[in-house]
Amino acid sequence: MKLTTVTNVSVDGVTQGHRRIDAGPRHETDAPDEDGSGTFERFGWAPPLLDDAASTFISQTFQRADAFLFGRRTYEIFAGSWGAGMDPGNPVGEALNTRPKYVASTTLTDPRWADTTVLSGDVAGAIGELRAKPGGELQVWGSGTLIRWLLDRRLVDEIVLLTYPVVVGQGTRLFPATGPDLGLDLVDLLSTPKGLTIQTYRTTGRPQYEAATA
């Protein structure tokens, strides 16, 4: 299976606080890894820009997954909403409730969401085994800390970015100031009426750099 990450991100790269997870029913994109504590105050920058085209893309992407991989916090958010029977019949919930789920965690010992496997110990090795299996897609939603960990170990095959036309100006960003370098091939590009761009990239290893000239 190819490992695909799917992330809501602002133009300046912020992933934090794209929704207020404590306000109203949770939506299928409520998967922030960071809870916005401390000085962050600009919650909810994504919903005013989410349109039907983006929502359709999100639903279709969930439905094509063969399995899901989460960090603990994102897993608990999903388990507390979709896993608790929110919005019965929704295709997102159907995918999440009927397909295998894996959680990278050293502290979660008793997952109560059916068909969940906790990955601890040699997490990189376990994820490598999942990637080696035949099939379609192992998807990572939200889980920013996990995504950065996966990128550090070059375990990501595809990166999907839902880029919202807003500069948040503060908050945790998907890509840190210092991290691994990564070459990308653009394999799909969509835009929506409210100005989201949805880019799908295939990772290609380390990028090429211009050679120094005399």
TrEMBL record:
Listed Gene3D superfamilies: Dihydrofolate Reductase, subunit A
Coiled coil segments of this chain: none
Biased composition (Basic and acidic residues): 19-30
Sequence segments annotated as region (Disordered): 1-42
Leader sequence residues: none
UniProt record, GO biological process: riboflavin biosynthetic process
Entry GO MF terms: 5-amino-6-(5-phosphoribosylamino)uracil reductase activity
Bias (Polar residues) ranges: 1-10
Cross-referenced SUPFAM superfamilies: Dihydrofolate reductase-like
Domain Bacterial bifunctional deaminase-reductase C-terminal, first and last residues per copy: 3-196
Pfam families: RibD_C
Source domain of life: Bacteria
Protein name: Dihydrofolate reductase family protein
